[in-house]
């Protein structure tokens, strides 16, 4: 009887193996019929030290998307790490983790190397923040006086003029990048019920993040504004030139597209970059409301993954008010910054009942080894402009409604 049972089990096993073999054969056959295809989109060309021209195709060095340059901007970059390169190691020395101390020493060496490689011919200017504001920022974030950015005299933090670009993002790449593709927003009409609109697929890219390439296609990029802004010119270099519609759009919308300041600071190998933009003023019978948007990038420069858990903002208005905002994550997410996907970028908004103010704060991050720390957001000014930019909707071929989400 036991022998019959064994024979039955062997027969069942053989039938099962036969079915598995059929499934494998079908899988191999299906893969052969529908193989993965690699298509050449262009050829990389040599990077340039000087400014790129309108129509230059590129790959984003951090986010990897395909894009095209519309026009350049010059911005004053305030990098606090360059003026206190020892703050990372000094801050970490207080911890009892020797492995982290070794990583921090390496990061400090990289910072020093970057400092020595900075061009000496770059223009510089005083930082926009005041000494009193720096003291308040340090106190609110709970920083100490040993090796922190609060030791840096704000008058010593010089801004270096660097080139950034307004670009179009290929819509085919939008679902796969870790950056908001509706980050460029503007105010609607004064009498409109909706206060914010967004143009999808626009971004601001630093010169060092541009990886230029060439393509023989007449329309190498998919974006609804590509053919409206650019035309194919085979004899030009690059072979795409701006149309009159692009020039008119830039001139009309220059105030709310303009970028003037960029702020950077690194804590525990996590670099925070902030770019504020003034959007305009809304007049009401009772008061005037001034609007800004700000773009924030988080970038992990270390070897261990970190996850953003909380945000803590301090918003100071010239009217004398100080607002504190706390919350989980940013824009409804708690992104993980890993060595494979090191960066995350988002945009948010803030409004004040005063023509100027300041913002600063921290992101609470948790490292994969369980270590949590507060990553400082560099202080930045909210400055209005004399022209009222909110009286009419900016001229644009396409715009989408966008829900307001303050202080993320």
TrEMBL record:
The ApaG domain, residue ranges: 264-389
SMART domains, per the entry: YccV-like (SM00992)
Biased composition (Polar residues): 113-123, 141-151
A Gene Ontology biological process term: error-free translesion synthesis
Record's GO cellular component terms: mitochondrial nucleoid; nucleus
Chain positions covered by the region annotation Disordered: 113-153, 380-408
PROSITE patterns for this protein: APAG
Comp. bias (Low complexity): 127-140
Pfam families: DUF525
Gene Ontology MF terms: DNA binding
Name of this protein: Polymerase delta-interacting protein 2 isoform X2
Organism: Drosophila mauritiana
Taxonomic classification: Eukaryota, Metazoa, Ecdysozoa, Arthropoda, Hexapoda
